[in-house]
Design goal:
Elements lengths: L13 E3 L3 E4 L5 E6 L4 H11 L1 E5 L7 E3 L4 E3 L3 E4 L4 E7 L3 E7 L4 E7 L1 H5 L2 H13 L6 E5 L12 H11 L4 E3 L15 H4 L5 E7 L1
Bound molecules: zinc ion (ZN).
Zinc ion (ZN) binds next to loops.
């Protein structure tokens, strides 16, 4: 198999930490993705440090502004509250991390095919602008590991990239790590039909 999106430990975006990947380029924001087999351990460890907010993930485009721990009926969260983790579970669908640095706001989305088609990333950016008066130039977007356009007929990378670009965001980081090409690290629903997931989480310190 040709694997152009195989994870390389010299990846300049994701730092490999044995049980999870960490993105360390946003000062003051913790961004992690649990690796294969470590979701529960990472979840427990996050919960011992701070409260975790999760969603029922119904593959929609609903994004909620949250400040209290719990499980919500949505696929995306926004918060400006420090010390709580936003979390989404995926295996091929794309976790999208957002950081608005001027007002210190974070967001995390579960962007699968349906959610992407319904414009979940555009919706999160719209709420940032409407509710927080965020300016696109202060917003950074990071794509977590997800199935690539070579392994799946729908291009999550390009369609989400386009949404962010259309909303005026220029700082869009896609480390191009494919779940299906890295089964030693991630789960791939398409490849394995597995019920297992990775946990992505973001927290404003
Ligand atoms: Zn791939």
């Amino acid at each position: 198999m040709n694997t152009p999106h195989k994870f390389n430990k010299d990846n300049s975006y994701w730092k490999f930490k044995d049980k999870y990947l960490e993105f360390e380029k946003w000062g003051g924001v913790e961004v992690i993705v649990s690796l294969r087999g470590y979701k529960k351990e990472i979840k427990d460890s996050l919960e011992s440090k701070a409260k975790l907010i999760t969603g029922k993930q119904v593959h929609g485009n609903k994004v909620l502004v949250v400040s209290e721990p719990g499980e919500y009926e949505c696929d995306g969260f926004i918060t400006n509250k420090t010390g709580i983790y936003l979390g989404v579970s995926t295996a091929d669908c794309m976790p999208v991390f957002i950081y608005e640095k001027r007002n210190k706001i974070i967001s995390l989305l579960h962007a699968g095919r349906k959610g992407t088609q319904e414009g979940i990333l555009a919706e999160a950016l719209r709420i940032l602008k409407q509710d927080f008066n965020s300016d696109a130039k202060d917003i950074s977007v990071l794509f977590g590991p997800a199935i690539c356009p070579l392994c799946y007929e729908y291009d999550l990378w390009e369609n989400n990239y386009q949404q962010a670009k259309d909303m005026g965001v220029t700082d869009i980081i896609n480390p191009e790590v494919c779940t299906a090409e890295n089964l030693d690290m991630f789960y791939s629903y398409r490849k394995e039909r597995t019920p297992e997931r990775m946990l992505s989480a973001i927290c404003l310190k």
